[in-house]
Design brief:
Elements lengths: L3 E5 L4 H12 L3 E6 L2 H13 L3 E6 L5 H14 L5 E4 L15 H29 L2 E6 L13 H20 L3 E8 L5 H8 L5 H5 L10 H12 L10 E4 L3 H7 L13
């Protein structure tokens, strides 16, 4: 398992879950987040549980800020051997023709730009050390079109970035993979469910498994991809989707389902 792990977006959601899992596994984790209060809260939780954590206020859309964070971490702790890029933002449903372009550019700056910046800054350190592993937290949108005109293409771009970086850094013993979650029952989504804005039954209908994916489910796969157990795995975006991808095509078969009673 990694000894020094960096998690962007570590102050909330999937980033926090990944940070907590790596800390449980013994890593010294560094939480990079624009919201320093959230990052400090996760830092405290990890330390109270006996782990090691440090919070840094970083806007991942600013490449110079990410570079500075990389230099600080290297100087204070050493070269990180794990990077999880979980920083990201979502958008409201919209059409491509009517989407707000300012909001579009912000989504891209954080989702793709933030991932790129982190991979470049920390990837260079790993290249120099000839060791390390990177896992991007992308989305099932990497594989499926949904009416999110900025978010969906930004996540698709991350898939290609993972593939390119895997080849570039593989020569130096550095692995690069990603996870592609579907709907995840984060506190933010749970709040929408509680408010009646989302229905769990509707979300479960599109999965092969009648299960809501949880942040700990994502963190477990991230931990695997960072571990020596995945030593031969690189260049892949792993869906963690309770079977969403195969189900969405299977369930729309025009001939109906084999278990349908059509007599």
């Amino acid at each position: 398992m990694p000894k020094i792990g960096v998690i962007t977006g570590g102050g909330s959601g999937l980033g926090a879950a990944c940070a907590e899992r790596l800390a449980q596994d013994g890593a010294d984790v560094w939480l990079l987040d624009r919201d320093i209060a959230n990052a400090k809260s996760v830092e405290s939780q990890i330390r109270e549980a006996g782990g090691s954590a440090h919070a840094l206020q970083v806007d991942v859309s600013d490449p110079s800020a990410v570079d500075e964070a990389a230099r600080q971490i290297r100087a204070e702790a050493g070269c990180p051997d794990a990077l999880v890029t979980a920083a990201g933002v979502i958008e409201s449903v919209a059409t491509v023709l009517d989407a707000d372009l300012e909001a579009h550019d912000r989504v891209w700056a954080i989702n793709y730009g933030g991932t790129l910046n982190a991979c470049r800054s920390f990837g260079r350190l790993m290249q120099e050390a000839e060791a390390g592993a990177i896992v991007t937290v992308s989305s099932i949108n990497s594989y499926a079109a949904l009416p999110l005109p900025a978010y969906c293409p930004s996540k698709t771009a991350i898939l290609r970035l993972v593939e390119m970086l895997a080849v570039e850094l593989g020569r130096f013993g550095v692995r690069v993979n990603g996870v592609a979650p579907t709907f995840v029952l984060t506190p933010a989504l749970q709040a929408k469910v509680d408010a009646g804005e989302r229905k769990v039954d509707d979300m479960l209908k599109v999965n092969a498994l009648k299960k809501m994916v949880t942040p700990s489910d994502i963190a477990a796969v991230v931990a695997f991809l960072l571990s020596d157990a995945a030593a031969a795995v690189t260049g892949h975006m792993m869906p963690v989707d309770a079977g969403y991808l195969p189900a969405t095509t299977f369930m729309t078969f025009a001939g109906g389902q084999p278990w349908d009673d059509r007599s």
